[in-house]
Amino acid sequence: MKRKVFSLILVVIMVLAFNSLAMAQDDPIKLGFFAPVTGPAAADGESALNSAKLAIEVINEKGGIDGREVELVNYDDHLDSKQSVSIAQKLTTRDNVVAVVSGSYSGTTRPAANIYQNAKVPMISAYAIHPDIPKSGDYIFQQSFPGPVQGKVGGYMAVDNLGAQKIAILYVDNDFGNTLNDNFQKYVEDKGAEVVYVDSFAIGEREFNPVLTKIKGLNPDLIYVVAYAGEGAAIMRQSVDVGIEAQILGTEGMDSTTQFLQVAGDAAEGLIITTNLNRDSEEEQVRDYINRYTEKYGFAPDMVGASTYDGFMLLAHVMRQVGPDSEAIKDAMYEVEDYMTNTGLLYRYNEIGEAVKPVQVQIVKDGEFHYYDQITDMDIIAP
């Protein structure tokens, strides 16, 4: 009698375990996300969140991952590093995500990266480009090219392409600005150009007339501006006000139609920026993304959104090969080769998770960003 009862109990346990496993295999695959949806970087946060939602929608339309739906678990970090760390702890312990995309800046992504590394949960930094982020460990990747690469490409454009010999620099005083300024300045000085003026400013600054007047008096060939959309638009408008005629070379922080081009207006004409989104790309997937985003949200996407979208599509790409296992995802990321993204051909990730890919150069013509150049020289773009 005891044996029969024991056997019955064993059968019940096995049935429950099988049903539990079957249910787990039907559960959505959870992918984490954080971005500054509110606070001083809300415009970028909105762009990133829009593209994260669109990516999940597209992934599920294409059958999810082996028939399982993908679920977005997203948080607002308010551009606060304490919040990003707290979010990382929630995503890795409570929410049980298999991977994460950061849609936030370097200052919030850097400290959070350590949490994901320790939890062995892969994290892709969509557009935060500080070089310390991938150094957090082998589970951490940068989807966009690293900051030092963009600074070096800026220097190449200034000296080798545009022929500048006297250069002034204005840069935002944070991880993004400091990284690009340091590497730009080193490149142009090594090439023999003279940096006649350097100054930094805080996020949110809008008064640049005094410094631009000073720069005008130095008569530089080119002004290198590392700024976000709001500060960048103010600099462009006020450079016209003070009569500056020098070429202005900007960066991806100014890559926004709604927050930069519409505010800067005619003052943005002729601006050249280094970025990772080519609006004139003939790649079908890029056209589809731009058209679908524009139709869904009522305005064109920027590099922040495109980079975020790419992060999720890369995760879907590798999960369709290896499944939703965090360690397998991490290993598969290092095997990615020549994968076309919305922000250019991803050649590969290097040994510390930095993306090796071309840098796009755009110019403002008739109020829109257009193709100017694409830098593919490995001596310049290799991290």
Describe the structure.
This protein has two domains: 193 residues, Rossmann fold; 148 residues, Rossmann fold (3-Layer(aba) Sandwich), CATH 3.40.50.2300. The chain has 13 helices and 16 strands. 47% of the residues lie in helices and 20% in strands. 50% of the residues are buried. It has a seven-stranded mixed beta sheet, sandwiched between helices. The protein is globular and about 65 Å long. Strand 8, helix 8 and strand 9 form a beta-alpha-beta unit. The longest helix is centred in the N-terminal third of the chain and has 25 residues. The chain is α/β, with parallel strands linked by helices.
CATH architecture of the largest domain: 3-Layer(aba) Sandwich
Helical amount: 40-55%
The parts where pLDDT drops under 50 for at least 5 residues are 8-23
Calculate Rg over CA atoms: 23 Å
Shape: globular
The biggest sheet amounts to: 7 strands, mixed
CATH superfamily of the largest domain: Response regulator
What pattern of helices and strands is seen along the backbone? Answer: HEHEHEHEEHEHEHEHEHEHHHEEEEEEH
CATH class of the largest domain: Alpha Beta
Q: How many structural domains in the coordinates?
A: 2
Mean pLDDT across all amino acids: 93
- Compute the separation of the termini in Å: 71 Å
Amount of beta strand: 15-25%
Number of DSSP strands? 16
The largest sheet has its strands arranged as 7-6-8-9-10-15-16
Q: State the helix count.
A: 13
- Summing up helix and strand content along with how strands pair, one would put the structural category as alpha/beta
Tell me the CATH topology of the largest domain. Answer: Rossmann fold
